[in-house]
């Protein structure tokens, strides 16, 4: 019996060693009949919701990408013919790789496709954003083409053959691009002589492919990820730009759960997702694998050498070189908090040196640990409580995915209104304002009268025909602090925060054709700013404290 037990334990250890991840699995339990039944129930629920792309829609996207690749390869051959001898033109071309939700197989109906054009060394970035962009605008089946060449990750946005596509560009130091090239392999060779913009562009595809490579059962992972994406969007915490978590971050989190429970059915992965993450010791990073850095020198996330990385709130690390924190915007939105924390740390270190004669080598004992965003943690806790009840058949999966009513959550709101004279101008201006909203929220958080500032991830257009045609509105829920003494009113002044934000945006936009207004409203006044279709959400006398 002793030998049998030892043999059984040895088999388990061998099986655990075969799985991927930075630690061994927590459980190798196989799905039960009830798990398989619950999974079928989940899939039927998502079919009824009709939010994910149909097979016909997926085929339309595939056809559009194939046609776009053919157009790009023809253009690359033409440009290369002007630079290279004729004998060197054989095999010169490029290849388009899709990534993001489309590559993961979890894209919703009408969602855009993220893709990158990988080219040979003969094509320059400025040629892609000038000459190829002109070629796209002349194409009869391409519309709304818009180049953002100066973005952190430069992109051409377009509608091609009825499909919205965000196309990035990366050139490799290669004479030809093989049809069977694997962007995950040979990292040092692949990234050698690339600039940082090319690395950022190509890594979107490499991250997506590595996530799929790291999960034990991709199909179970996809089913569970669809549920998590619906949940995050419905609960208003799916937005990288707004300082929440984007699609890559949610995918990495779920992939880590799939590594810990490699044989689990999708319903179990979802339940464990909430149980593990509500108990996670943030800011301990979530990582899918250990990397051996190549002999390259691109900047990457490393709290041992980068002080600012030590103050990231919810580090979720991409699984390819150079490693990055996919929740960087969550940390950026608390930039001033990190500065204050760093100053506090330095003061504590100096105090320790004066009082106890401690050396700087021991400064880690005075490190201040930042806390993750309250809204995300509250939603994870809600998810854990509901999945507990779902396990005991007391609640349904629909209860977990119930959309939050943002306009019933607070008594006070700030409305940011961006308007423009033309649709083309508004596309850029809307993106600019949205990318800077985190700064306004941060400013509110440091206002002595405000306890919480929470931006809604959804934006809205015209409330009525009297408003400008090209207008976008964002809503920030405000929770004020209680008065320090009973019977006394709290002194609230948002003037500095608002005027400073408007001044910053106007300085960036620098155009009389663009207008920005920031207004205050109580809950009962929101009907003046929301479209009539949204008025039903303002339906209670007291806010439902969902956060």
From TrEMBL:
Residues 405-466 form the Poly(A) polymerase RNA-binding domain. Binds 2 magnesium ions. Also active with manganese. It holds the Pfam family PAP_RNA-bind. Its EC number is 2.7.7.19. It is an enzyme of class 2 (transferase). GO terms for biological process: mRNA processing; RNA 3'-end processing. It comes from the Eukaryota. One of its GO terms (molecular function) is poly(A) RNA polymerase activity. Residues 220-338 form the Poly(A) polymerase central domain. The keyword Lipid metabolism does not apply. ATP binds at residues 99-101, 108, 112-114, 166, 238, 247-248. Its main location: nucleus. Residues 21-215 form the Poly(A) polymerase nucleotidyltransferase domain. Mg(2+) 1 binds at residues 112, 114. It catalyses: RNA(n) + ATP = RNA(n)-3'-adenine ribonucleotide + diphosphate. Its cofactor is Mn(2+); Mg(2+). Mg(2+) 2 binds at residues 112, 114, 166. The keyword Hydrolase does not apply. Keywords: ATP-binding, Magnesium, Metal-binding, mRNA processing, Nucleotide-binding, Nucleus, Transferase. It is found in: Nucleus. One of its GO terms (cellular component) is nucleus. Polymerase that creates the 3'-poly(A) tail of mRNA's. Belongs to the poly(A) polymerase family. This is Poly(A) polymerase. It comes from Macrostomum lignano.
């Amino acid at each position: 019996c002793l030998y049998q037990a030892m043999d059984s334990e040895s088999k388990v250890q061998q099986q655990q060693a075969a799985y991927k991840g930075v630690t061994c699995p927590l459980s190798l339990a196989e799905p039960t009949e009830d798990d398989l039944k619950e999974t079928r129930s989940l899939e039927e629920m998502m079919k009824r919701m009709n939010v994910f792309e149909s097979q016909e829609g997926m085929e339309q996207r595939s056809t559009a990408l194939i046609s776009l690749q053919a157009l790009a390869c023809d253009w690359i051959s033409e440009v290369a013919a002007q630079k290279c001898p004729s004998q060197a033109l054989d095999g010169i071309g490029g290849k388009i790789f899709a990534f993001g939700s489309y590559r993961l197989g979890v894209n919703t109906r009408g969602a855009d496709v993220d893709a990158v054009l990988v080219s040979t060394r003969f094509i320059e970035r400025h040629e892609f954003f000038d000459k190829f962009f002109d070629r796209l605008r002349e194409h009869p089946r391409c519309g709304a083409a818009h180049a953002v060449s100066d973005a952190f990750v430069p992109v051409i946005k377009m509608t091609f053959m009825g499909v919205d596509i965000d196309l990035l560009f990366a050139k490799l130091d290669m004479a030809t691009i093989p049809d069977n090239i694997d962007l995950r392999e040979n990292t040092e060779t692949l990234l050698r002589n690339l600039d940082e913009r090319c690395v950022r562009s190509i890594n979107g595809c490499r991250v997506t492919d590595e996530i799929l490579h790291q999960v034990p059962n991709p199909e179970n992972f996809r089913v569970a990820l669809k549920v998590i994406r619906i949940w995050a969007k419905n609960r208003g915490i799916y937005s990288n730009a707004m300082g929440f978590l984007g699609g890559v971050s949610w995918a990495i989190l779920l992939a880590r759960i799939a590594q810990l429970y490699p044989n689990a059915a999708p319903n179990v992965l979802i339940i464990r997702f909430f149980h593990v993450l509500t108990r996670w010791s943030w800011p301990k990073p979530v990582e899918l694998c250990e990397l051996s850095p190549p002999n390259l020198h691109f900047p990457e996330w490393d709290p041992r050498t980068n002080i600012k990385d030590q103050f990231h709130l919810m580090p979720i690390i991409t699984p390819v070189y150079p490693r990055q924190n996919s929740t960087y915007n969550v940390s950026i939105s608390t930039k001033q908090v990190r500065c204050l924390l760093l100053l506090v740390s330095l003061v504590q270190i100096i105090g320790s040196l004066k009082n106890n004669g401690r050396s700087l080598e021991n400064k880690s004992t005075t490190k201040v640990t930042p806390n993750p965003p309250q809204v995300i943690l509250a939603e994870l806790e809600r998810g854990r409580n509901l999945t507990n009840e779902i396990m005991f058949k007391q609640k349904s999966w629909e209860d977990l995915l119930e959309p939050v009513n943002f306009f019933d959550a607070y008594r006070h709101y700030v409305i940011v209104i961006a308007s423009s004279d033309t649709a083309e101008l508004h596309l850029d201006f809307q993106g600019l304002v949205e990318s800077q909203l985190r700064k306004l929220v941060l400013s509110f958080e440091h206002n002595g009268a405000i306890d919480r500032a929470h931006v809604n991830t959804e934006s809205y257009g015209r409330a009525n025909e009297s408003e400008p045609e090209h207008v976008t509105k964002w809503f920030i829920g405000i929770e004020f602090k209680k008065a320090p003494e009973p019977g006394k009113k709290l002194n609230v002044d948002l003037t500095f925060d608002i005027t400073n934000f408007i001044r910053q945006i106007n300085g960036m936009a620098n155009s009389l054709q663009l207008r920005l207004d920031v207004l205050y409203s109580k809950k009962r006044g929101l009907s003046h700013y929301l479209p009539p279709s949204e008025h039903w959400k303002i339906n209670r006398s007291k806010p439902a404290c969902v956060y």
